[in-house]
Specification:
Oligomer: single chain
Helix content: 55-70%
Order of helices and strands: HHHHHH
Number of strands: 0
Radius of gyration: 26 Å
Number of domains: 2
Length: 111
């Protein structure tokens, strides 16, 4: 039987083998107190860096802050699709049939 990678089904025998290899007697989703404490302590170690980062972000000029927020939220810039739509309309009028990377050169504005 073939096994999947990340995101694949975990079979009972694989789970049991991993628990045995790691000497892990705990039930699924049970986090022992010592593991939880170590995890929380690791998080606390980075608190000064996190607070420093937050201060630097708060001090950004408004335009740069908006850009950073947009990027962190995964939003595309407004009107990002305008060059593509313009090219598509132009290509239809001109009867262009080229595709792929050749078309990209006509669409993407290089700064």
């Amino acid at each position: 039987m073939q096994r999947a990678a990340h995101g694949g089904r975990v079979f009972a025998e694989d789970y049991a083998a991993a628990c045995g290899h790691l000497d892990w007697p705990h039930a699924p989703f049970e986090i022992p107190d010592d593991v939880r404490a170590a995890w929380l302590e690791a998080g606390r170690c980075s608190l000064p860096s996190y607070e420093s980062w937050q201060s630097r972000v708060a001090a950004l000029p408004p335009e740069r802050r908006r850009l950073l927020d947009r990027l962190r939220e995964g939003r595309l810039p407004e009107n990002w699709d305008r060059p593509l739509r313009d090219w598509r309309a132009r290509a239809a009028l001109e009867g262009k049939t080229q595709g792929g990377i050749n078309s990209s050169a006509d669409i993407v504005e290089v700064r």
